Amino acid sequence: MEIKVLEKDDVHLRMSVREAVIPFMNALRRIVTSEVPCMAIDEIVVLENSSVLQDEIIAHRLGLVPLKSDLDSYNLPEECPCKSEFGCNLCRVTLALEVEAKDGSRTIYSGDLVSENQNIVPVSDRIPIVKLAKEQKIRLEAYARLGKGKNHAKWQPVSMCAYKYYPKIEISKKCTACAKCVDICPRKVLAKSGNKIEVRDLLTCTLCQDCVEACPENPAAIAVSGEENGFIFNLESTSALPPERIIAEATKILDKQLKELEGQIKVKKSEED
Ligand code: SF4
Ligand code: SF4
Ligand SMILES: [Zn+2]
């Protein structure tokens, strides 16, 4: 397998993967969205709430605030030696929220949450939770835990994870450079240069085939297809974890699952013998 990072920043990762097969790409995508853990608020204890929103709605909103996660210092609750439903310092982080609208209405934002661990805080301070009218007050304690996207979307470390075939565009000698394909392309992949058509931005091609259909030649002078074993993998993190860490965790989990499967097949075979 040949993997090349095409683009990377704090949140996005785009890479080309060659000599791979669809089941592998799909397994990687599914593990990223459903098995790689991250932190999210899972339980709250409301001490005071005079806002217009019920406790349950506030709990739901707090649960969906993405939190910066630390996979090295915390255990998944089901794997923590404490075996406690409430959790311990190795599987639970407490965040407090105490806000009163003293001088007039005010909005409570994610940045008002005060965490006991400065590494486990909301990824943004500007996520609105609830608006308080004058003299309304909220006082609560929230408990964040590691969890997996397969149990609730709030534990998904990505806002997007998808792959597509690596595009392949061929323009034949029959091309008259009429530029109809250039004009119709929604992603501006093609460009006219003199009396030739050039591929300007191959990777943004969605393989929609609009250019092929617009070509007046019969058969079309342009052909668009996907490489059989080549893919572009795209990932956007919620900022809970760096994108490269998400991929690294996903490959570790896939490896573990394959080893477990191999072990089970061996056990079955020896039972049959
Ligand atoms: S297949 Fe679609 S996106 Fe790709 S070059 Fe043709 S029109 Fe553009
Ligand atoms: S539409 Fe067909 S003939 Fe016209 S420029 Fe594109 S490929 Fe060439
Ligand atoms: Zn614990």
Topology diagram in text:
Elements (H helix, E strand, L loop, with lengths): L1 E7 L3 E7 L3 H13 L3 E12 L5 H9 L29 E8 L5 E4 L4 E2 L12 E5 L4 E11 L10 E14 L8 H5 L5 E4 L2 E4 L10 H5 L7 E16 L5 H30 L1
Helix pairs in contact: 1-5
The site of zinc ion has 6 residues, from loops.
Concise overview:
By secondary structure, the chain is an alpha+beta fold.
Structure in words:
The longest helix has 30 residues. The chain starts with a strand and ends with a helix. α1 crosses α5. 27% of the residues are buried. It is flat and about 75 Å long. β1 and β2 form a beta hairpin. It is an alpha+beta fold and 273 residues long. The model has no long low-confidence stretch (mean pLDDT 95). The protein has a four-stranded antiparallel β-sheet. One iron/sulfur cluster (SF4) binds next to α4.
What are the salient characteristics of this protein?
four-stranded antiparallel sheet, binds zinc ion
Number of helices: 5
Strand percentage: 25-35%
Kindly, what is the distance between the CA atoms of the first and last residues, rounded to a whole number of angstroms?
A: 36 Å
Outline the low-pLDDT stretches: none
Chain-averaged pLDDT: 95
Main sheet makeup: 4 strands, antiparallel
H/E series, N to C?
Answer: EEHEHEEEEEEHEEHEH
Overall 3D shape: flat
Heteromolecules bound: iron/sulfur cluster, zinc ion
Structural class: alpha+beta
Rg is 25 Å
Helix content: 10-25%
Strand order of the largest sheet: 1-2-12-9
Strand count: 12
